[in-house]
Amino acid sequence: MTGTATPGTPAAPTEQPPVRLVVVSAGLSEPSSTRMLADRLAEATRLALDERGLTAEVRTVELRDLAARIAHTFVTGFAAGELRDALDEVAAADGLIAVTPVFSASYSGLFKSFFDVLDKDTLVGKPVLFGATGGTPRHSLVLDHALRPLFSYLRAVTSPTAVYAATDDWAAADDGITPSLPGRIARAGGEFAGLLSPGRFSADGPEQEEVLPFEQQLAALRLPEE
């Protein structure tokens, strides 16, 4: 007997493949608050995808372990070994989560160097959720004056909410004015999951609504003749 479906029998729903997420953490210490934030953003995204009936496949790249290879690539112009694997993982991912510590009021040199050796077209149209960690809340503007311009330049689709975590944020409760860190992480993960939902984005960027020619729009406003 063949596997042909009986006429009139509805076809079984096609199972969606897992959403491939790559998490890039530029933390230098171990344990690292940068890695902690990256993991929590990934978990919030996974939970939000689960609510949409989707599963997530998460791969984490620790830039600390690739620092020497990144520097070597600047000299040789050729990425090899584990760095080549990491770059390929980013290229194949459906979405990217990237988190950096703040040094001198901006992203770290290691973080920037990784994206400097990444092919310039790798992130075109790819959803990216980014975050940063630092010792003081005064560095929170790094999200919009450094990180968002970087990923916009690389033509990525940046998630609306990015997350900055200062040292005091990890234990701070929601005061009714500023959302707590867990609340901001959950919101960011939910928005990012929306960008990762099938059909929301194409390889050429966000799907565009059909635009009617101006003449047709104008004709629709004309009063009917008596």
TrEMBL record:
Q: Which InterPro entries match?
A: CE1759_FMN_reduct (IPR023932), Flavoprotein-like_sf (IPR029039), FMN_Rdtase-like_dom (IPR005025), NAD(P)H-dep_FMN_reductase (IPR051814)
Would you say which domain of life the source belongs to? Bacteria
**Region forming the signal peptide:** none
The terms under GO molecular function for this entry are:
oxidoreductase activity
- A UniProt-annotated Pfam family: FMN_red
> What keywords are assigned to this protein?
Flavoprotein, FMN, Oxidoreductase
Gene3D superfamilies recorded: 3.40.50.360
Which PANTHER family did the record assign?
A: FMN REDUCTASE (NADPH)
Name of the molecule in the record: Oxidoreductase
